[in-house]
Amino acid sequence: MIVRLRVALICFGVIAFTIAQQTGREWLRWVGIVLVGTALLLRFLKR
Fold first, then answer.
1. HEC per residue, 1-47
2. In angstroms, rounded to a whole number, what is the distance separating the alpha carbons of residues 23 and 8?
3. pTM (2 d.p.)
């Protein structure tokens, strides 16, 4: 379950970051960074 959540967060984060780079929306870039960061922090979550 956690693996699927992490993969989804990384995918949405990369998509948000890519869209932000193309459109120039600063807030969307930070949303992408936060999503990927959250996925990386979930790596240390104990079941």
1. CHHHHHHHHHHHHHHHHHHHHHHCCHHHHHHHHHHHHHHHHHHHCCC
2. 22
3. 0.86
